[in-house]
Amino acid sequence: MLYRRMAKGGKTDYAIFEAAASGPDTxxxxxxxxxxxxxxxxxxxxxHASRFRTLENVAREKRSLVDALEPGGFAVLNADDPNxxxxxxxxxxxxxxxxxxxxxxxxxxxAAYPRTLSFRLHWRTGVLNLETPFPGExxxxxxxxxxxxxxxxxxxxxxxxxxxxTFLPLDNRCQILIAEGGPHFIVDSVKAPWHSLxxxxxxxxxxxxxxxxxxxxxxxxxxxxxxxxxxxxxSAREIAEQVIYVGEHAHRSKANEADRGVGRxxxxxxxxxxxxxxxxxxxxxxxxxxxxxxxxxxxxxxLAWTHDVRCWIPDCGKRESCQTCGLYEVPxxxxxxxxxxxxxxxxxxxxxxxxxxxxxxxxx
Length: 364
What we know:
The chain has 364 residues and is α/β, with parallel strands linked by helices. The chain contains 13 helices and 14 strands.
């Protein structure tokens, strides 16, 4: 992922890259190519466990960003994570976190959806009160990292406050979608490593909305998956009136017959089945968490309240979100012909005037 800010005259002020780790030796080549001036490390958690195996392996991979810093560059590190703060280079680093020793210290973290996250950031110039659009407290971590980095390179506190307050959350990363007269959806359908479930469930538990439901799809971490689906159900049922499992692992919940009988637990096979079930049983103003790895595209369940979703294939094989794909209102089996028709129409509009069709002035 790349974000670039352009100054007047087309000159680039700065570029921000996300270097994602999917396995050993996946960040290092990118880091050596980028040679960053600033390396920001937010946390070390055991994701892609089947490839990394240990936290130490994840930390070693992420440290390659710090090792690749340009001369004179610096690292921005999470002071609360020993696996991160231990990456500090000898020349310069800046820390953030709840630790008293952090250069940018965080306090007063608070969120209870529909009241969104706010917290205080203490630094050498004073205290910055930050209000965000995020529904859960755990978003303080990336927000503090971004704010600390911006302040460290000289951005004014007022601009940092405004940019944080008006930031548009990314699609399907705890994105809020509210259906008029229907549910409030928290769509968290990009990743579902084991450590992220507790954060998502805590977000639901702290919400002040009435009825709460959790829809759980596929976990991203496949080690000991059977036991983890069962443990996830036990945690989810403590904070939600109904837990819905969907997909090929739904049978792993180990929900008892009593929970199944009263509807505390519902097992369904496809996102379309879940969408139909929620449509039949929805209560205005209830909170529904959609949590899964990306393969099931659970975002369609929320999109169906505002769009005519017609692509309901359980696993389409596409890694991008439904919003990025843009074809969720077209049946999956018609995607190829739809795209071919669209390409032909673009060519016709662009070159049709050569064949006596559209005039050049009407070209798009």
